Amino acid sequence: NAVYILKNEDLLRKTHLLRASHFFNYKNYEVGPHQTIPTVSTLEELRSAVESSASNEMDDVIIVAAGTYSAQEGDSYLIELQESEGYGLTITSDEGLVVLDGGGIAQVLNVAASSNFSFTLKEVTVVNGVETSGAGGAVFDVKSLRLEGVRFENNAGGAVYIYGDYSKGEQVEIIDSHFEGNTGKPAFRQDGYYSP
Q1: Considering only CA atoms, which of 54, 104, 59, 53 is closest in space to residue 78?
Q2: What letter would DSSP give residue 183?
Q3: Are strands 60-64 and 4-10 parallel, antiparallel or unpaired?
Q4: Residues 90-99: pLDDT tens digits?
């Protein structure tokens, strides 16, 4: 299956759609009220979309189809991103229930950036992560972080750990999110020079 990523230059007017398997770029694609934005629907597609977002020199929005995306034996992370471009990435659900499940064997999210990178996670559930470093649910080292409508449940070693040493202007926003049943460490921890 092809991986589709919504490329966000101006989400209300223009979008770029990248078909990652063949790298077809559709310029100035108009998103009308009755058109369907392609989504990723398997763990392999999601991982490929995240990997592609790190090197395409654009802001990205990855829309994830409803379902449970579970870590596999041998995984250290369900989703890992090492970013150096300085663009933004949003991962969001397609309005259905999206569960990112560490399965008690892996950290769910590990996102690190060496540039002015912004990351948004929206309307997903992060569950059953285990701490490899920092927290079982998610570890972030980014310039700007936004968690909106995210549920963190039953993660060992805490839900979220944020660190960073940027000189100024860091932002952390947590909006309408829920933390429950996370064990071992405080649900939310931060180090470095963040200014939430």
Answers
A1: 104
A2: B
A3: antiparallel
A4: 999 988 899 9
Retrieve residue 45's tokens.
């597609």
SS3 139: strand
Least confident residue range of 13-22, 71-80, 118-127, 132-141 = 13-22
Are 119 and 85 a contacting pair, CB within 8 Å?
no
Half-sphere exposure of 21 (CA within 13 A, CB side): 8
Q: How far apart are CA 129 and CA 135, in angstroms?
A: 8
Q: What is the chain's length?
A: 196
| Dihedrals phi, psi of 105, to nearest 5 degrees | -130, -15
Amino acid at 60: D
- The torsion region of residue 40 among left (phi > 0), alpha (psi -120 to 50) and beta comes to beta
Is there a contact between 59 and 86 (Cβ–Cβ < 8 Å)?
A: no
- The model's pTM is 0.79
Q: What is residue 114's three-state secondary structure?
A: coil
